[in-house]
Write a structure and sequence with these properties.
9 helices; 12 strands; five-stranded antiparallel β-sheet; 401 residues; alpha+beta; elongated; five-stranded mixed β-sheet
Length: 401
């Protein structure tokens, strides 16, 4: 009996030991759970951080204006940004771009790469450059729309060529006249030649002054903006051009504008714009004619009009008259001494004021240039043009100060 009780006691002891070991193991396992949980959490955080990084990289790539594609060694596109997706989704001319992309990417996979410029005649006409470069296991392709860059390069070349011509002609004339003066014994002839030298030197000076004015306007970023009385702008511009107009027997007629009408901008620039429009009108008007300048407002914008009754502008030239050095009639411009920069200056001044300039013209009957600029703050008069103190559209609602 004692032996049996001993065996039972041993069994119970073993059971207790086994149970204690199991409890210890369970506790050990339980102790590992937080570590595993932390490990899982850390892994999740790293995965989310990686996903965020990928999203940021994709967003950055989509912000790139050029189309970017990555292809694998089999020529399959594995990634592309938004601009590249738009190219792939487009039709017509962009099918040609896709063909060039396939050709250059295949060459890049082989290790050679290359580039190609494609002219798409539209509409709208575009110039696209495709560049492919090899990658360790595939290729990178960049699609760049260089239309604007090509246009600016063409403008730069034309500007340099025109400027060279505009300066070379009077400078060459001055040199020839000076050589002739050295050997001219007749005082009357020498006097006439001297007058020609002075005129040509003034022509060079005007060209340089206009270039400096245009450069200053283009580079200006901190122009003074304040309410500018429009009637003062018109009067000052007219006074600046009136002496030249009187020499050509042309009358500049300034319509009366309410003193309450103002424009929001730079007074000096606005005067320069109107003066250039008047100068252009006088040069292309016939002797004895009238050039009218007037202004009106709807309370939001101010419209300044300069109307002449001269030669008018051929329809084929209307779109180009605001280009630098462009002239409708070069022979007449040579006689009048124009630099071909006046309307370019007007365009830039109006752009600086976030406005618009437009032209209506009939060949042989005259032209009307209209400049729209923001109106000044505060109440203004809007009403019938017949009212001497209130210019404007007779159909517009009246608003008193």
């Amino acid at each position: 009996m004692a032996v049996l009780l001993g065996l039972v006691a041993v069994g119970l002891l073993v059971a207790v030991v086994v149970l204690a070991l199991r409890l210890r193991a369970a506790e050990a396992e339980a102790a590992k759970v937080p570590e595993l949980t932390r490990a899982v959490d850390d892994g999740g955080r790293r995965q989310r951080a990686a996903a965020d990084t990928v999203d940021q990289l994709r967003a950055a790539l989509d912000a790139v204006p050029q189309g970017v594609l990555v292809v694998d060694a089999a020529g399959v596109v594995v990634a592309r940004n938004r601009a590249a997706r738009e190219v792939a989704a487009a039709r017509h001319g962009d099918a040609l771009v896709s063909g060039v992309v396939d050709e250059l990417s295949a060459a890049a996979i082989e290790g050679s790469g290359g580039s190609r410029t494609i002219e798409l005649y539209g509409p709208p006409a575009r110039v696209v450059e495709v560049v492919a470069r090899p990658l360790p296991r595939g290729a990178l392709v960049v699609i760049d729309d260089i239309t604007e860059a090509r246009r600016l390069e063409a403008v730069r070349r034309d500007f340099v060529a025109n400027l060279s011509h505009e300066l070379k002609t009077p400078v060459g004339a001055i040199g020839l006249l000076a050589e002739t003066l050295l050997a001219e014994p007749d005082p009357d002839v020498a006097h006439r030649l001297t007058e020609r030298v002075v005129n040509e030197s003034f022509r060079v000076s005007r060209t340089i002054d206009d270039l400096l004015e245009l450069s200053r306007i283009e580079a200006s970023q901190e122009d003074v903006r304040q309410p500018v009385p429009v009637h003062l702008v018109l009067e000052e511009a007219a006074d600046r051009i009136r002496p030249a107009a009187e020499l050509s027997d042309i009358v500049i007629r300034v319509a009366e504008v309410s003193a309450r009408v103002s424009a929001w901008g730079d007074r000096r620039q606005l005067v320069s714009a109107v003066a250039n429009l008047l100068d252009n009108a006088v040069k292309y008007s016939s002797p004895g004619s009238v050039v009218d300048v007037r202004a009106a407002t709807d309370g939001t914008t101010v419209a300044i009009e300069v109307e002449d009754h001269g030669l008018g502008i051929p329809a084929r030239d209307v779109e180009r008259i605001f280009e630098r050095f462009y002239r409708v009639d070069r022979a007449r411009s040579r006689d009048t001494g124009g630099t071909g920069l006046g309307l370019a200056i007007v365009r830039h001044i109006v752009a600086n004021h976030e406005g618009e300039v437009a032209v209506r013209s009939t060949e042989g009957q005259g032209s009307t240039f209209t400049v729209h600029v923001p109106a000044g703050p505060g109440p203004v008069a809007v009403g019938d043009a017949a009212d001497p103190d209130v210019p404007g559209d007779p159909t517009a609602p009246r608003r008193s100060a």
